[in-house]
Amino acid sequence: MTQPQFIPLSFREYPPAGMQQRADEFYVEMKRRRTVRDFSERPVPRHIIETCIRTAGTAPSGANQQPWHFVVVSDPDIKRQIRLAAEQEERAFYAGRASEEWLDALEHLGTDASKPFLETAPFLIAIFAQRYGLDEEGEKVKHYYVNESVGIATGLLIAALHHAGLATLTHTPSPMGFLSTILQRPANERPYLILVTGYPAAGVQVPDIDKKSLDDITTFL
Ligand code: IYR
After folding, report:
1. Measuring from atom 2 of ligand 1, which residue has the nearest CA?
2. Residue 2: its pLDDT value, please?
3. CA Rg, the chain, in Å?
4. List of residues 6+ apart from 14 with CB closer than 8 A
């Protein structure tokens, strides 16, 4: 075993008032975030996406294995293939694969099997979870807490894109196996979700829903 190496922590402390202000400002910014389902075709510079993915890549992960891969799709032809495959699954979902209970739970969102945003939005970020890693010899390396790790990275990516001034949609057609085929991903990777991003379409409206209160989501002991 090699000895673990340690370096000084780069940590910033703020005076209490500064902490409160930072916490407040971040909350105000994040609560403006809404899932958008209607995107503009306006292009977005690729380096914005690159920086936001770098942010996602700072996420903590099980044993620091960083079990994620981001496939950034802007090619119209590949976007079209994804749209067609996703809509095929969604048609089966809405026409009977989903239970009545599930469809009832979705009703207030007004979603259906039509997914034009998969072609309109300038970028689809397909996020893959690496169920296991591969070492230099191609041997399997066990990965820990894969779902948790990729979920945290995805959360950071959503926050980073929002902070940069872009709208997002977390899209999870189910099943999503077609993504591995279209995007030619290796067998150790499983599609996790598609993060659709770009500018919202002009005049877009969102469902009139709100978030639970602090009391509803918290217990202090
Ligand atoms: N994947 C489907 C259905 C859907 C499921 C959930 I859970 C949502 O929060 C929203 C939609 C679709 O994209 O329409």
Report:
1. 173
2. 81
3. 20
4. 22
45-88: pLDDT as tens digits? 999 999 999 999 999 999 999 999 999 999 999 999 999 999 99
Cβ atoms within 10 Å, residue 94: 15
The rounded Å distance from CA 94 to ligand 1 centre is 10
Q: Where in the chain are the domains?
A: 43-201
Closest-CA residue to 105 (of 207, 33, 216): 207
Q: Which atom of ligand 1 is nearest to the CA of 113?
A: 14
Output the CA 144–ligand 1 centroid distance in Å: 27
Yes or no: domain 43-201 corresponds to CATH 3.40.109.10: yes
Residue 1: per-residue pLDDT: 67
Question: What is the pTM (predicted TM-score) of this model?
Answer: 0.96
Q: Which atom of ligand 1 is nearest to the CA of 172?
A: 1
33 contacts 109 by C-beta, under 8 angstroms: no
Scanning the structure block, which residue is given the tokens 């994804």? 82
Enter the tokens of residue 215.
């009391």
**pLDDT tens sequence across 22-41:** 999 999 999 999 999 999 99
Element (H, E) at 30: helix 16-31
The percentage of residues in the chain with a pLDDT greater than 70, rounded to a whole number, is 100
Encoding tokens for residue 101? 């209970």
